[in-house]
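Help wanted!
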Amino acid sequence: MSSLRLFHKIAALVIIATFLSVVLFGSISYFIFKDELIEARATEARSLAVFASDEIKNPLYFLKYDEMEETIKRIKENPNVESAYIMHADGRVITDGTDENVHISQIFTDDFTRRSIKSDDVLLEIHGSVMSVSSPITITEKIGILRIDFSLSELNLVLSSLTTNLGLIAIIICAFFVGAGFLFTRSLLNPIENVKNAAVEIAGGNLDKKIEVTSQDEVGQLASAFNEMGEKLKEAYTSLEQKVCERTDDLQKANLDLEFEVEVRRRMDHELKKAKDELELKVEERTHELKTAFDSLKSLDDLKRDIISNVTHEIRTPITIIKGALEILELEEDPEMRKRLINTSRDALKRQNMIVQDLIEAVKMQGGAISRELALSKLDVESILSLATIEFKASAFDKGIELISKIDRDLPPIRADQNKLKHVLRNLLSNAIKFTEGGRVTVKAKHKNDEIEFCVEDMGIGIAKGVHKSIFQPFFQIDSSPTRRYSGAGMGLPIAKNIINEHGGRMWVESTTGKGSRFYFTLPIDKEE
Amino acid sequence: MAKILIVDDEPEIIFLTAKMLENEGHIVKGVKNTAECFLELEREIPDLILMDIMIPDDDGWEACRKVKSDDKTSGIPVAMFTVRSSEDSIEKSYKEAGADAHINKPFYKKDLLNTIENLLKKKAT
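Answered by r_m:
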């Protein structure tokens, strides 16, 4: 139902309403009219029957058949009368108007007759399209019945033609109302249609659409309201558009800024990453360096502790010996023992002195004092070497060592501090002899570039490759602690090396354990001519 | 009176210390490292051990621990006999090595003799 257009709805309503009302009206009229019509006829019939029965009184009493026939004939002249009968009071028909003059003695057997026989009143009944009226014929008592049957067909015709007319009228009225309704609906619906179309258009985008306001009634008001709404919509839409434009602009700007920022950030991130990588690398390097430094510091620390222990031991042991010897000496009477004790003390003292001397040298070296005082002079190599070796000839011989020189011919003179050089040679030679049991110690010298290269070679116990550098460090001992055989504070080589370095030369060792050692050092040639 | 074992790598120290103790009537034997010390302990149990700490490639403290942990030798009083006089060293001798005494070098004769006497007295009880 809801899909039907408004017009259809109204049309249907109108038609149904009209039809129903017409039908109702028509039916009511029809029936009222029919009743009235029939009533009229009935009244007519009754009067006629009464009048006629009155007239028939006499003829019937005196049985004047001709008069009775006449009356019936006259009655039957009425076009509506179908048949008429005069009957005895018991229902025997006397005459029915036909000329046959038949004395019909039949007794009507229908109910109406029976009732008429019984009744003393005027009876009127309708059976089908026949209106039957019976009137008693009475003088002092009922002597007969007059019955007239009227045909209602004429009536029916009238009624049917009435019905037809009514029908036509109904149709005309319907049509009229439908037409009117149509026009009315149109006039009503048109504006609504307009509003609808206008709304569709506005919805479609045309915000300027306006409706023509043609009346002041509700439809017109609707139209005005609609127009207003359209206006407002347009305003709102326009301002919204503006706002959107503005926002879009803002957003675009912001977007550009953002892009810029993002780019900047990206670059920064890249830089940061680079920096981070570099940093990590550096950190790794530093960590490695630190670790190495720490390790060497630790070993230095250990070395320091060892050195300190060594030095402490070295210093305290001779003192202990001397002290002990003196205390025993105090109470000792045996001269042999006394001599021994005194000698022991003397040796311990010498030992102590050496250590103290070395320590002083070490301190001086730390302060750099040793290096400033070189008394340089031109020296002949051969002479200085022979001077040094002579000192050791005796102790070498004692140990069964052959001490020889292998000096190149025509060596140029060197520039050096004689005393210091002697100290160096002394140290190297004493070491060579000390660490050798038999065999040979050789002193060599040769000319190399602008230097003289010296070498002190022995066939002693040799020096392990791992400690070739360490032996030139202060306090380093071959066996990390003094024994009777190799005493000393471990300062000889460091001092010697220092002296040579100060002259502008170099000192190093070539050796393997068990295969002897070769200590080299170089000194510059005297360049002054 | 007592048999004393000295463990020290300096022969002169052994000689002088032994002389001091022999003058008091003790019998003294000297060895130059801890290995020889343990060999000697196998042979004969002394009444006292004087143990040097700083013998090269050797460990006096460790040797003292070993002596104290072995049932056979744990009853021998051990005196650490050394140049190492720091508080740490003294503490280590008593606490870690389980020594009965700690004698610093250089020493006074009477200090040495007193300490030894005390240790021997304690052992006797």
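OP: Thanks! One thing I noticed: Chain B has a mean pLDDT of 90.
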